[in-house]
């Protein structure tokens, strides 16, 4: 499975759970999970369907990844894998009932790694 593989190979990444709704009244909300990784790992992770999402012709502006970040939408079996190992490997670093949650590895802070790269 993708998450265990990323952990085993030592990649720095985080999991983002976001909510979206189909109408303005927010009667129906859908959750989507994405794996966020660092651009420096793009060559190795591109075969795993990671995308830069930085092309405004392909993505609406609000879906663009910040510079230095690549991402990949998770499939149902990968979400189940994440839930099984979440407590062992991840800590929640952001939580908002309206927008979602972010989890990063307990032993490898994605936020710290990302800040080091963009400040270099």
Descriptive tags:
120 residues; alpha+beta; 5-stranded antiparallel sheet; 4 helices; globular
Structure description:
- The protein has 120 residues and is an alpha+beta fold.
- It has helices at 2-8, 42-45, 76-89, 110-118, and strands at residues 13-21, 29-38, 69-73, 90-96, 100-105.
- The chain has a 5-stranded antiparallel beta sheet with strand order 3-2-1-5-4.
- A hairpin with a 7-residue loop joins strand 1 (13-21) and strand 2 (29-38).
- The model has no long low-confidence stretch (mean pLDDT 86).
Structural class: alpha+beta
Strand order within the widest beta sheet: 3-2-1-5-4
User: Averaged pLDDT, please?
Assistant: 86
Rg, nearest Å: 15 Å
What is the overall shape?
globular
Amino-to-carboxy terminus distance: 33 Å
Provide a compact summary of the structure.
The chain has 120 residues and is of the alpha+beta class.
